[in-house]
Amino acid sequence: MDIDDVICNLRVVGMPTKSAIYTWGYNQSGQTARKGKERHLRIPKSLPPKLFTCRDGENLRWIDIACGRAHTAAVVSDGSLFTWGANDFGQLGDGTEESAKEPKKVNALATEFVKSVSCGAHCTAAIAEPRENDGSISRSRLWVWGQNQGSDYPRLYWGAFAPNTVIRQVSCGAVHVVALSDDGLLQAWGYNEYGQLGRGCTSEGLQGARVLNAYARFLDDTPELVKIVRVSCGEYHAAAISENGEV
Q1: Distance CA 99, CA 84 (A)
Q2: Is pLDDT above 60 for 223?
Q3: Which sign does the torsion angle of CA 66, 24, 31, 34 carry?
Q4: Residue 166 contacts by C-beta under 8 Å, 6 or more apart in sequence?
Q5: What CATH number is associated with residue 33?
Q6: Local structure of 56: helix, strand or coil
Q7: CA 61 to chain centre
Q8: What is the mean pLDDT of the chain?
Q9: What is the pLDDT of residue 221?
Q10: Residue 153 shares a structural domain with residue 173
Q11: Which sections of the protein are RCC repeats (predicted)?
Q12: CB atoms within 10 A of CB 121
């Protein structure tokens, strides 16, 4: 078993040793989780496994990672989520606005099995399933927190989707978020000053969630409902791939 087992309060705790996280670059807020006073880290280096404590007795590895403007989030194969770095908008999901220079587990999602994560400039979004789910059907749900997300703790978010909609993917831009349902629908919310919400117009101020596929101008004015299979956000734009391979 490739796990370092340590005794802590009479419990055996696993550490991810099957894979590693490498960080580099700007480090003013501790977003690289590397020690030292230097702010510009020019060489990628791996983080020591002892920074992370996970669930018991598993062959652990990292399965997803995302970076915001000054914070980082990573998902372990046991469904745990760790965050570190800047926290001025509650983007670390710990209920505070205190930065963390070392990774901290997001305990508010302890009852969820996190599958993926995305970071905006100052917010975070994750897709997770309830841990009691037997796996026979997908129950992936969206959790959001940080800037413009209504909470500095992870909160379950349906937006324009019906409750219990299965969520396939989420992607965060600088100040907007796009979520993809399992049946191929997109919804977007946040700021729209450059048209990044895909509504055929620009607008000022924070915008609520709407389903993109309901708009006639979406995907070259195609009148029929378009099924999307993948989405990605840049800082102020977004792109999606449809089921037939169109971008």
Answers
A1: 7
A2: no
A3: positive
A4: 138, 139, 140, 141, 181, 182, 183
A5: 2.130.10.30
A6: coil
A7: 17
A8: 87
A9: 55
A10: no
A11: 19-78, 79-130, 184-244
A12: 20
Amino acid at 6: V
Residue 104: closest CA among 85, 122, 77, 124: 85
Q: Look at 126-135, 137-146, 175-184 and tell me which has the smallest mean pLDDT.
A: 126-135
How many Cβ atoms are within 10 Å of 9's Cβ, its own excluded?
A: 5
The verdict on 6 and 79 lying in the same domain is: yes
Question: What residues contact 106, with CB distance under 8 A and at least 6 apart?
Answer: 80, 81, 82, 83, 92, 93, 94, 114, 154
SS3 content of the chain, % helix, strand, coil (to 5): 5, 45, 50
Six-digit token pair at 113? 């099995």
How far from chain centre, in Å, is Cα 219?
26
- Tokens 């413009």 appear where? 148
Token pair 């919400």 is found at 197
**Domain that includes residue 217, residue range:** 165-247
